Amino acid sequence: MTYRYECPYCGYEAASSGRKGPECPKCGGLLHEREGVEQPVAFQELFDAAEGVLPLAGISQSGQVIALDLGSSEPPYADVRRVAEPLGYDAFLRGRNGRYFAFLLKRSEEKAGRRFLSGPVLYLGLFLATVASTLLAGYYLSTPLVDEGLMGSPWTGAVSFSFGLMAILGLHELGHKVQSIRSGIDASWPYFIPMPFLPLGTMGALIKMKSPIPTKDDAVLLGASGPLVGVAVAIPLTIIGLKLSYVVPTAPGAAEGGFYLGNSLLFWLLSSVSVSVPDGMSLWIHPLAFAGWVGLFVTMLNLLPAGQLDGGHIIRALFGERGHRRISAAMVRLLLFLGMLGLVSEMGYADLSSYTWSGWLIWGILAYFVSKGGHPGPLNELVPLSRRSKVIAVLALVAFVACFVPVPIVMA
Hints:
Blueprint: E1 4-6, E2 13-15, E3 32-33, H1 41-50, E4 58-62, E5 65-69, H2 77-84, E6 89-96, E7 99-106, H3 120-147, H4 154-182, E8 191-194, E9 202-206, H5 216-243, E10 246-249, E11 259-261, H6 265-274, E12 281-284, H7 287-302, H8 310-346, H9 360-371, H10 387-403, E13 409-411
Antiparallel strand pairs: 1-2, 1-3, 4-5, 5-7, 6-7, 8-9, 10-12, 11-13
Helix pairs in contact: 3-4, 4-5, 4-7, 5-6, 5-7, 5-8, 5-10, 7-10, 8-9
């Protein structure tokens, strides 16, 4: 039998096969069933648990999500948790059109066979493998410096590059981990991703969140903690690396087969105060400075306002579900557009190489996939953002703008 659903607030109707969730896609109200169905056992358990605790006006279900209609008076979140947690649910409290709803999602237990993926042996193994792969990348980056007589041993550059990059990436993720502990979020330790066949030797690092974010404040702090710590570490390392860099004559064809790095506002500022390059000369940056440049670039990528990236956590807290969805979609389109312009330029149809980069096409595709599932938001969305969180969100925006590079790499 096909059941139909309708919104009592705006009149929207949908068949069960076309319903995407328990909320009305037009106004956000809770959809009601037109034709009654036998209540699942879980419904009766919730009615029993809510008796005398929550003013439960109705229950409906869409897929794995159970929606509780809590009426027009805002319920204490502690009471919602008191009903949901003993039955194994995470409760997401939302306000829609003057009414309040709790959306319940059953907690998933970690399977015994997957616990190895959260074990110290794997964390340490990936860390050591990434140290080795970044050492290898730094060695190859330093070989031309040795060939030109600017560096005594390629291992000097290898150690500098690996130390700098691992420090920035590691402390970035450690910032997330510390904040997750402070916010009561169950999260893994950092997974480093070794990539020995790539120029950087790594694809970065990540942590896995195993429980929802409690509040909007926690979402901002979690999203901003890693990037802001990463920038704070990258700045002094970049300055040291720039002071160790080499000012060399600009000779025709000298850079053939190499590449030039694009400037972000922050990297340009650090370069301006750290080293002076006379006319007719070029700066051949030290591997430690290159690690700093990479760290700033990775910070910018993490702060892209899309999906569940660090920037995605922040915009979800600031602008809510609809705002997050629209901003994520706009960012995906912008990256794809910039990437297509870069591709057109590289194919010789237009000279736009000074303004955009074809690599944004890849990041646009990645942003599309990380945005596809949306963002669940915090458990209690009714608590407003604090002034402190708003200031931190602004700092994260400043970091994003300061680290953005329109054309990251130009092949010589």
